[in-house]
Specification:
This protein is an alpha/beta fold. The chain has a single domain, classed as NAD(P)-binding Rossmann-like Domain (Rossmann fold). It has 12 helices and 12 strands. The strands form 3 sheets. The protein has a 7-stranded parallel beta sheet, sandwiched between helices. A 3-stranded mixed beta sheet has the order 7-9-11. Strands 8-12 form a two-stranded parallel sheet. Helix 1 packs across helix 8 and helix 7 crosses helix 9. It is globular. The chain binds nicotinamide-adenine-dinucleotide.
């Protein structure tokens, strides 16, 4: 039986990761530490309510006493750090929260992990892993060609990506200085179930269904490399199982799309499934708005190291993944409503303590 401490497991990717890892039926227990910010949502974890393998704890990665208690009590074999402030627009409005969680919080988690790891019996120390989940945004913006590799110099352009870059550097330093067995993954844009409806894809789905204007930044031609969240989660499990200590792995979907193309795809999928009452195409709702300050033009990931060393590849094409995603949001409209009205009650989940 393995125990993993997962942070940020009530968020979009962390939630999908927890659900997927426990569904895989491995001998696994997950202690899920999440501060339940606006982006964390207990409804995502409702299916695990009676699963004794899931222990939910409401709390902050920066709370040393709490993290020390969890490490001592549950003796995890791995820590997987998803917890973060993650929305670029919010980082432009208020960078401080990003520094607090992504930098100060990650540092505190690293220090607690280092002390815990050092005190492990020799026989368990070698197998312990600290896996840090990061983003391709740390590499900055690309021109018309090329793709980010693990050797691309960091050049973060937003307060969000700067805070993630700082946390990546701290993880690297803890491996180099103290020998903590770390792994870092840098992934491209994710999409799929349980994503907070401020991010492009769930935002457009929700507004398109409501008949609202569909806001598209600038000329809509910014390019992102899209990956289905389930494939990201599978990649993280591969890296955790077989990644080389101290290495970083880029994760991407080989699915570069202009934002405007993503929005038009969503409109077409929704028109086919739920035509507007007046029969007009939802593309008519598209409205161009003033560009995000410092908006990176293009991201693309070269994931060949992960494919070569760990035999990982995305299982879903963008076309299949995006259609499945639209179907999920149509079938789970209650989830979006609960998230948006923010009135959900904190409940006991699994054996967890919810403060
Ligand atoms: P999210 O915003 O949906 O979820 C973040 C979760 O972390 C929330 O549940 C929140 O409550 C929790 N959290 C925030 N501050 C915390 C704290 N101080 N202590 C404990 N929990 C805290 O984010 P996401 O999209 O799921 O991203 C997860 C991770 O993956 C982040 O580190 C992000 O940088 C990275 N990432 C995201 C993407 C993407 O496309 N969404 C792509 C690459 C990497």
């Amino acid at each position: 039986m393995q125990t993993w401490l997962v942070t940020g497991g009530a968020g979009f990717i962390g939630g999908n990761f927890v659900i997927g890892a426990l569904a895989a039926g491995t001998e696994l227990r997950i202690v899920n530490l999440d501060a339940l910010t606006y982006a964390g949502n207990v409804h995502t974890l409702a299916g695990l309510k009676n699963d004794p393998r899931h222990v939910f704890v409401a709390g902050d990665i920066g709370d040393r006493a709490l993290v020390n208690r969890l490490l001592g009590e549950y003796q995890p074999t791995a820590i997987i750090n998803f917890a973060a402030e993650s929305h670029v627009d919010r980082s432009i409005d208020g960078p401080a929260a990003f520094i607090q969680t992504n930098v100060v919080g990650t540092l505190s988690l690293l220090e607690a992990s280092r002390d815990y790891w050092r005190a492990l019996p020799e026989s368990q120390r070698g197998a312990f892993r600290f896996l840090h989940v990061s983003t391709d945004e740390v590499y900055g913006s690309l021109g018309d060609s090329g793709a980010f590799t693990e050797e691309t110099p960091y050049a973060p352009n937003s307060p969000y990506s700067a805070s993630k870059a700082a946390s990546d550097h701290l993880v690297r330093a803890f491996q180099h200085t103290y020998g903590l067995p770390t792994l870092t993954t840098n992934c491209s844009n994710n999409y799929g179930p349980y994503q907070f409806p401020e991010k492009l894809i769930p935002l457009i789905i929700q507004k398109a269904l409501a008949g609202d204007p569909l806001p598209v930044y600038g000329d809509g031609r910014n390019i992102r490399d899209w990956l289905y969240v389930g494939d990201h989660c599978l990649a993280i499990r591969r890296v955790l199982a077989a990644g080389r200590v101290g290495e970083t792995y880029n994760i991407g979907g080989d699915a570069e799309r202009e934002n405007i193309a993503v929005v038009k795809t969503l409109c077409a999928l929704l028109d086919a499934r739920r035509p507007r009452a007046d029969g007009r195409p939802r593309e008519s709702q598209i409205t161009y708005v003033a560009d995000r300050p410092g908006h990176d033009r293009r991201y693309a990931i070269d994931a060949s190291k992960l494919k070569r060393e760990l035999d990982w590849a995305p299982t879903l094409s963008f076309e299949k993944g995006i259609a499945d995603t639209v179907d999920w949001y149509l079938d789970n409209a209650a989830w979006t409503r609960q998230v948006l009205d923010g009135s959900y009650r904190l409940e006991r989940i699994g054996q967890g303590v919810v403060a």
